[in-house]
Amino acid sequence: MAETHDDNPALFEEDDHRAVYIFAPAGHNSSPLQEKARPVKRRRVSSKRASAAAEVAADAEGETQSTTTAAAFPRLFGGEESAEAAGLRRQVFDTAWPVLDWRIKNVLREANRTTLENVSSFIRDAEGDATRGTRIPAGFIITGPNIVSQDLLFEQLSEALGKATQARFVRLRAAGAPNLKAALKKVIRDATAQVSLDGGGDGDEDAEVAFGRDGRKYLDYDLEGLHAFLGAQQDSSRRVIVAFEDSEAFESSLLTDLLALFHSWQGRIQFSVLFGIATSVELFQARLLKSTARQLFGAKFDVVQADLVLDNVFKSAIAGTQATLRLGPTLLRRLLDRQRDQVAGIRVFISSIKYAYMCHFYANPLSVLLADEKSLTRQLLQPEHIQAVRTLDSFKAHVEAAVDARQLNHAQSLVEDDSYLVKQMVEQRQKKQDYLMQLLRSLHLLTSMDLVPGRFTDLYVAALAGGLDLTPTIDAIKRLGADDVPALINRLLTAIQTGSPDLDLPGWEDEAEELISSLSEIRDEIEALAEQAREKGQQALKSKFTAQSKVLRTTVVAQKVQLSQDTAKLTDEDKAFGKAIDSLVDLFTHNIYSDPIDSLFLHEAWAYDAEAPYRDVFVPRPGTTFERALTRPHGYLGCECCSKAAGTLSATLPTTCILYQLYLETGSLVNAADLWSAYYALVGEESDAGLGLGEREALGRFYRGLAELRLMGFVKQSKKKADHVAKVKWLL
Amino acid sequence: MGDSLFQLPDELLFTTLSQTFPCRDAQIRAVATLLHPHAAPCQNLVIHGTEATGKSAITAALLQALQQDTEKNEPLLRYVIISSIECITARHIYESTIAKVAEALQWQGAATRCDSVSQMLVELSKMLKYPSYPANFRFVLVFDGIDRQREAPITLLPALARLSEIIPRITSVFIVTSPPASFLRTSFVPCIEFPNYTKNEFVTILNTTSLPTAPLPTTTIQETTELWNRFTGAIHDALARAASRTLPSLQHACTSLWPRFTAPILAGTHAPREFSKLMVAARVHFQDESLLDPGIVAIRSYSSSSTTTQAQTKDNTAALPSAPPSQANTPRKAQSTTTTPSKPKSTANLFVSATTTDLSTLLPPTARLLLLASYLASHNPTRHDLVLFSTFHHGRRRRRGGLSVGMGRGGHRGAQSKHRKIARKLLGAHAFVLERMLAIFTAVRGEWDPKWLDKDSSSREMDADIEMAIATLASLRLLVRVGGAGAGGVAGDQMDRGGKWRCNVGWEVVRGLGRSMGVEVEEWLVE
């Protein structure tokens, strides 16, 4: 395959990786640069090689682009940006992302820890379990529908189990093991290869795999070979763990065969199996034969819910203080929605974050402002940067606010004085820090109050979009009893002390002395009040919010029911309690607040909220793209002739586009002869506006166009009627 | 050796064997007679019988004993056992036969490659026919489960049966489940049947093999044994006749029921002699389905079972602080089996509900919608699509499914029901074209997903997320592709809109899924 691709360089142009480009067929292209650049071979590369291939691709790109700088980021401002600024953007990205990447990986690894421990101990203990009999120990790991994202889990499992039980670990995927032979081959190959990895002497052991001890050669799907190999290894445990990563995707007959085989080898080779189960154990069991089910000695393990993992990743990578770039509320909402509504694993979420970082630093010249003090010098800021800042929406809003506040000098200098503006921009960095701290501390306090149910992610996104909404919390506080309030305050105090390790937020005791002292005051006051009330024999403190001011009383006097309204009396303590609550609420409204993110001047430099690039990359819509290309090809071809014919027929359109237009008008079965005559009428010699094509050439083009339509999945051959093609695609 | 013409093996051999394998005396003797070199060695022998009747185990043990028994000065009997389960291909069985024979004879330099029966015969002749062996030397080839051999050519069995015609020293033993008439294509093959055990035999075996070793507290060992005897008999009557006919499953039932059965004795409410009272008390436990079908999750099945295994359970859960679902299930299951025992069905219901909630919480909404749409596509005939899903006139669907109601009023119902007696949802799922399912999906999505209509039109098109959801459902086998290659000779891509698919989930699951999204799927099905 690769050779044929090589022979045909027109198949892969270096334009392939670009989102938008004007198509220029190879024949039309006379640029020597492009011909020199050899197309990169398309081949399946393992993950290790992928990075290398990416470098090769980058090199190829470097050859063709004359404007490349040392940094791979292009200069912006129409090429006016200095190379240093572009390099700095690259540098900021290169330092910002790995921090997050490391944190995310940590979170993910940590999330699987308990599952790992449980599985290892199960596999270890199953060996000695008397009730097991000859059954195969089987761990069912409920992973959720996104099997791909469990790659990490199985990787960790193979590490942990290899260590814990000295077993060979084999991972099977349905795609790699279509039948019994292939599955066994993989099991044997992997089980024997692992030793040579950690054993050391590779060459000799490989020979032993093939020949065993007595020089006998084994078929590569013969477990006898594995047995002989394990015997030759002096491996007393002879354990092999086979993990079926996507067990639903395996044929049930294949599973049955494999399990029966493993079972019959039990005693000579200690097989254990692990199943990654996406749906439920019951559904899985329903697919197995009962006799197979009886050979399994199973236990069920749960992986941490995807929601929880998402929350943790969100906290550390998006909300946490370590995040250099803030993602805006629109994008975040969309990302979160996608996680909830679609089959998109946590991996997709992470790559979306990375993509947002890449887009921001690649395409936003103001992202240099995120660089640290040292590297961001005054010389680096070009007039274009200043100009760009002045076009920002947030700049306009800021100036207008200054005018409204009668700070006319400030506003004027902002608009006219470059150095003043630069000073303001530098100051803005501190303001941004303050804003983020305030936001995170407020959120942390809110979540540690634990009064209003709600996920941190939703709270964070809402706070970014429209500021913090305290109303539900305040309502909840007002309903609290006298015993709960001190507990609440204690929770808050500890929250202030410890901060939040998830968010990487240190405690801020020193900065919040005032808040702490007022909180403790209120707490002491309420406790004293409660004590007083108890001494007086009052049941519990009531505030004006909790106590219903009017109580309907029912009295039965001489078998008659009397209804009377009674105003509940609030004692002095109750009133004082009400006041304390009031002051507490006051305290909260002054200390827990946050503005929407777009109210800040210069937020464009450190917040990214564009949804479209993300959607185009992660949720492509091939149907719409095809449709657009076929109805308005001039947008892609850049030719003059077709631009008038938007959505209508024109002879100058490419054949496929004409056929597509005709195709849209047909019913479910298309007569090929009719299609041809309609096409020929348009482009043939007798047509008015036509190109005057000869019949042979027109027919050639027609065939090609129809074949292309078939390739794109619009039509297919029909058995219903001779000489007809069936229309396949109705929706986009 | 001054041996007579016919001489049975030592009686001691039979005694030891029948202690290990009780109630199989006749079969052991018959097989021994037909295999022993001094008795009546035959050329081929078919041993057949159902699962778990001791065919393989007895053959292996007997041959082992015979080999030792006849081993005087020189070898008189050698054997190999080739298990067909372990042989993946026909070539595999030939090669492992040769390798094992060479090993049994300590033969050096056997061929490693063997593609066909004739080649195997040549190799076997080299080892068995030409070299000199003592008179009466027999070599027994046991083909265990040969009827289950994968990729077996049709000539395999007849060819194996003819091995002994060329090499007279060979006896081929075929262990099969039930031999078809003259399946070896050769005349006169002795067959020995290993029938399933009778009630008395079952009870005897259970008494000798799996008698509880420790006596119950507050009772003597004799009382315990007696109780066990009557208990196994009762279990056999209750379960074996109808459902669990094999020895292992009966054994499993006994051992898992025993603690529950004896719980009243431990609690002190009944004496071990009051068997009928114990039976009445334990009647509910006999209805527990997990006795017959233990399922694959063993750890959970302990925890639901009983009080004395509770210690075990604790061990397990202590070793495994994991399995939160199993622990979460424990109280509910325990309740349903012990405290509210009058409802044996509740366990089954629990299972169903657990399954459905599982699926509906596991799958994201888009995937659930797609699954529902494909269920509709699988179970509604195409001609009703326009009626059910058309939004052409009012922007909303004109009529909700349940056409039968409308027809009933019109008086056509009789004719209809004559036509189709079985409810459609009870019939299997039909295949549908992917494009049709997607059309149904877009039609119902607006109605079932309230958020959908709020979105702007650009984000309401088919996007990659939907295709990802389809691919996921396909990889979970909830949607199944029918017919590998697409029509027209083009190898079908999974995303080919013309491809045919089938919904692979049942009505119960779909109803649960629908309810989890606030949809009554029944209303959308045409009866």
Explain how this protein is built.
Chain A contains 31 helices and 12 strands. Chain A is α/β, with parallel strands linked by helices and 732 residues long. Among the domains of chain A are: 65 residues, no CATH class; 191 residues, Rossmann fold (3-Layer(aba) Sandwich); 119 residues, no CATH class; 106 residues, Arc Repressor Mutant, subunit A, CATH 1.10.10. Chain A has a 5-stranded parallel beta sheet with strand order 2-3-4-1-5, sandwiched between helices. In chain A, a hairpin with a 2-residue loop joins strand 7 and strand 8. In chain A, helix 13 packs parallel to helix 15, helix 14 runs antiparallel to helix 20 and helix 23 runs antiparallel to helix 24. The longest helix of chain A is centred in the middle third of the chain and has 32 residues. Chain A is extended and about 105 Å long. Chain A starts with a helix and ends in a 5-residue tail after the last strand. Chain B folds into 3 domains: 184 residues, Rossmann fold (3-Layer(aba) Sandwich), CATH 3.40.50.300; 144 residues, no CATH class; 165 residues, no CATH class. The longest helix of chain B has 20 residues. Chain B is 50% helix and 8% strand. In chain B, helix 8 crosses helix 9 and helix 17 crosses helix 23. A 5-stranded parallel beta sheet of chain B has the order 2-3-4-1-5, sandwiched between helices. Chain B is an alpha/beta fold. Classes of the chains: A alpha/beta (732), B alpha/beta (527). At the A-B interface, helix 5, strand 1, helix 7, helix 10 and helix 11 of A face helix 4, helix 13, helix 14, helix 15 and helix 16 of B.
Q: Measured on Cα atoms, how large is the radius of gyration of chain B?
A: 32 Å
How many β-strand runs of chain A?
12
How much helical structure, as a percent, in the residues of chain A?
40-55%
Count the DSSP helices of chain B: 24
Taking pLDDT < 50 over at least 5 consecutive residues as the criterion, the unreliable ranges of chain A are 1-12, 29-36, 44-71, 196-209
